[in-house]
């Protein structure tokens, strides 16, 4: 299956969310292994998982690229851009912001060691 088929528009996302899917939002910028683990853990057996791609200030990757990456995860059934109109059950944006800050700190420390 072409994982891009998992990427849906806002109207489809609303229908799927109304059909009892688990709805999760996050930045996924960049997508890292812990995202895959977290999303898999959030998906109950037999449930559908809809992931909404939110966009942080100064995103590294465009939303479309992040949507394709998230869609490639086995645990994710559907992906849509977070445009409002839906209320996620779980917000991962704060976790993502903390993860990004830690990554940035790590990169800066590595750059100081290399010079």
Summarize the SSE layout with pairings.
Blueprint (H helix, E strand, L loop, with lengths): L9 H9 L3 E5 L6 H10 L6 E5 L9 H9 L6 E4 L8 E2 L1 H22 L1
Parallel strand pairs: 1-2, 1-4, 2-3
Could you name the ranges where pLDDT drops below 50 across 5 or more consecutive residues? Answer: none
Largest sheet: 4 strands, parallel
| Number of DSSP-assigned strands | 4
Radius of gyration: 15 Å
Oligomeric form: single chain
Might you state the CATH topology name? Rossmann fold
Which structural class best describes the helix and strand composition?
A: alpha/beta
Indicate the mean pLDDT. 91
For the largest sheet, list the strands in their spatial order: 3-2-1-4
List the secondary-structure elements in sequence, H or E. Answer: HEHEHEEH
Helical content class = 40-55%
Mind telling me the CATH class? Alpha Beta
Global morphology = elongated
Distance between the termini: 46 Å
**What's the number of helices?**
4
The tally of domains stands at 1
Q: What would you say the CATH architecture is?
A: 3-Layer(aba) Sandwich
Approximately what portion of the residues adopt beta-strand conformation? 5-15%
Describe this structure in words.
The protein is α/β, with parallel strands linked by helices and 115 residues long. The protein has a single domain (3-114), classed as Rossmann fold. Helix content is 43%, strand content 14%. It has four helices and four strands, in the order H-E-H-E-H-E-E-H. It has helices at 10-18, 33-42, 63-71, 93-114, and strands at 22-26, 49-53, 78-81, 90-91. A four-stranded parallel β-sheet has the order 3-2-1-4. Helix 3 (63-71) links the parallel strand 2 (49-53) and strand 3. The protein is elongated, with a radius of gyration of 15 Å. The mean pLDDT is 91.
